[in-house]
Amino acid sequence: MADAATPKTGVVGPTSAPDDVLRVEHIAKRFGPVTALKDVNLHLKKGEVLGLLGDNGAGKSTLIKILCGFQKPDAGKMFLHGQPFEPNSVDEARAAGIETVYQDLALIDELSVYHNLFLRKERLHRPVPILANRQMKREARTALDEIGINIPRIDVSVARLSGGQRQAIAVARTVNSDADIILLDEPLAAMGAKEGAQILDLVARLKEEGRVSIIMILHNYVHVLQACDRVSMIQDGAIALDKPTAETSVEELTDIVVNEYRRAREATHREEAARPAGP
Amino acid sequence: MASAAQSPAQGGSPTPQEDGREHHSVALPAGREILSRLISLREGSIIVVTIVVAIYFSANTSSFLTTANFKTLLPYFAPLALLGAGEVFVMILGEIDLSIGAMYMFAPIVFYKLDQAGLGLVASMIIALLVCMVVGVINGAFVAIVGVSSFVTTLGMLFSFEGLSLILSHGTPVATPGAQVTQTEAKVHHIVNGHNIVLSEKINHIGTFAKLFGGGVYSELIWAVAIVILLQVVLTFTRWGLYTVAIGSNKLGAAEAGVNVKLVTIRNFVLCALLAAMVGIFEAIRSQTIQPDPSGPNELLLIAIAGAVIGGTLLTGGSGTVVGALIGALFLGILDDGLILQGVNANYKLFYTGLAIIVAMTANVYVGRVRRGHSGSG
Description:
The complex is a heterodimer. In chain A, 34% of the residues lie in helices and 23% in strands. Chain A has 8 helices and 10 strands. By secondary structure, chain A is an alpha/beta fold. In chain A, helix 5 runs parallel beside helix 6. Chain B is mainly α. Helix content of chain B is 73%, strand content 7%. Chain B has helices at 2-12, 14-27, 29-39, 44-60, 67-92, 100-116, 121-146, 150-169, 208-215, 219-237, 239-249, 251-256, 261-287, 295-310, 322-341, 346-372, and strands at residues 174-175, 181-192, 195-206, 289-290. In chain B, the strands form 2 sheets. Chain B has a two-stranded antiparallel ribbon with strand order 1-4. In chain B, strand 2 (181-192) and strand 3 form a beta hairpin. Chain B is globular, with a radius of gyration of 26 Å. Chain A binds chain B through residues 90-91, 94, 100, 102, 104-111, 115, 119-120, 122, 124, 129-131, 133, 157, 159-160, 173, and chain B through 233, 237-239, 242, 245-246, 248-250, 252-254, 256-259, 318-319, 371-374.
């Protein structure tokens, strides 16, 4: 991990800024014969919402898993608030202020909304460590109201909620913590327009507050341009584009992908042409 | 003939089928909602069934609703309630502990050996319990750290420690230390037809130690009720209980949220082993002998699991109550006792117990669906 890979041509170099809360340089990760990440440079400013785009298998989720401490990179360096950052576990990353909403949401179906919100951060009566359920309910209600999530009843199990409400609870859980960096892995996956809009509204409100910085994986370019300050696109395990959303457009993003597909198609044709003709 | 029969069937088949389906969905609504409300209380179904069964036996046998019968019921259901209470904590995790049979058998033998070595009753008992708690740690470590399935781990421990019990005891029954009955003679005055008659009567005494730990008539009942209430509070109102449910409901999610899955798993296996060891010692004191025979414990462990299941604890984890296990044990006790009083053949008894488990389990699956809101009616 000490010897960072040398930057290659055509790869966006690390752009360092004093107000970066998170910066990763030359991150690489292989899974056996598969190279998930070749050389990734990424930075996140305070209060910024960064949209992470990329085709299936481009390495988006791998990058998120490295940032949240779930996996370790093979090479490269990470910096959190300017300090070297090498989390050995999700707990370590969380202690450092990075909260993640996984695609599976990590909600406990059998537990109520407020118990899910306060999982591992339970409020207790003292001196006997009995759960202060009433206090948690009250605080959960306040927290949900503050970030504008409308859940009719917070004492029902989360299994009874809709997909959008569940996602909102999962996001609210991270907001309700002391985290200053939130990673969202496809928060709009498998969600209708109405529910998706709720989540994007929530992200917009968090952006306005400016307390947390967010990296979120998205698929829809319109959502990215609407909700994010900046967009990074991963292609073949490296950042192919890194621009403020104001300076890019759906057309430009689409072109990159179209070109990628054309290159892939041409490569396949070349391989087929090079292959000796069969019987 | 074949073609003649086919053509009308082909033409007419879609309509009656659709008809039938519509009738089905329309016919159900009103009564079902009331029923689902009643049984969506976690222990609701088993409470109702237990009361119904108790009323049935009270009406049919004159000797059912008597103090004497209640006393015969106690030694059956109090140990089951205690064993079930520990098992519930493991089952909510989505695991199972079969080794409670071995702990039940092993603890009194350790207790006996230590007492023989001169450690004294209380110290021997405490060390015997601690030894069994270590076995619980091993169970939990194999499941949570090594990753062996709990069924396999605890099955292995069941056989190992039942075997070890036989080795240590040489398969010979012994008298339980501290449980000896002493007799004293007392002169008792009777007044018969106006005459004062003095008769000497023999009075049985058991030691205070035995009275406290299983020997007293209500000793096991008091322990069972106290521990069940305590553990129900732990399950419902503490982080320990919350994390137990969280792990059983979504192990990965709980771990991602930062719950220490290994610690909670090990702790619950320790609790389960401790309670089984306690019951083992209590029962040895109550019966005054330590019987190194695995057949009793093997049956008891399965009945304890049945009691927990009947009481609403899901084998798949994530849901269950300690009070439910107590009621489940009470239900099995009443069923067993009532069937005996009615003079039902022992073979039928096992058959009815089996049916009761299946019916209760089906009800629990339905209740779970209603509570999660997955079913059409919920």
